[in-house]
Amino acid sequence: MHRRSLLFALPALFASRAFAQGFEVTRSDAEWQALLTPAKYRVLRQTDTERAGSSPLNAEHRKGTFHCAGCDLPLFSSAAKFDSGTGWPSFWQPLDRAVETQSDSGILGIRTEVHCRRCGGHLGHVFEDGPQPTGLRYCMNGVAMTFIPA
């Protein structure tokens, strides 16, 4: 296998691993494709990453709640959002029982993937370089979420 072929095969390998477990909200691949826009489908179901700075949610500063774009589960409070300077919406803490994490090893080394605990949708990754009080940076794909103002 050529390196280029391997690089293009990796997202599919991770997607099948990430969604092997059962979730409360389950749909067939065809149902997810019909429900989501192509960009949301690539991120939520195929573990893609949106281009930095492309999400309007990065500049969202109103009070409210960020929800999963796949199943509408509330994920993050606007009170936990901060400007990380990375180009992606960042939070120092999710809402209780909103997300789950798992090890994600790929080209960039071993990271911690964050996904919606209800539908398994890929949201982004969590890093240990965030602000206090947690020291965590939940670096999320804006296309994987919707915002509901308070």
Could you explain the architecture of this structure?
Helices cover 21% and strands 29% of the residues. With 150 residues, the protein is α+β, with helices and mostly antiparallel strands. It has a single domain, classed as Peptide methionine sulfoxide reductase (Metal Binding Protein, Guanine Nucleotide Exchange Factor, Chain A). The strands form 2 sheets. It has a 6-stranded antiparallel sheet with strand order 3-4-8-7-6-5. It has a 3-stranded antiparallel sheet with strand order 2-1-9, with no helix packed on it. A hairpin with a 5-residue loop joins strand 6 and strand 7. 33% of the residues are buried. The N terminus is likely disordered.
Percent helix: 10-25%
Q: How many helices?
A: 3
Low-confidence stretches: 1-20
Ends apart, CA distance between termini: 51 Å
Estimated share of beta-strand residues: 25-35%
Query: How would a textbook summarize the main sheet?
Result: 6 strands, antiparallel
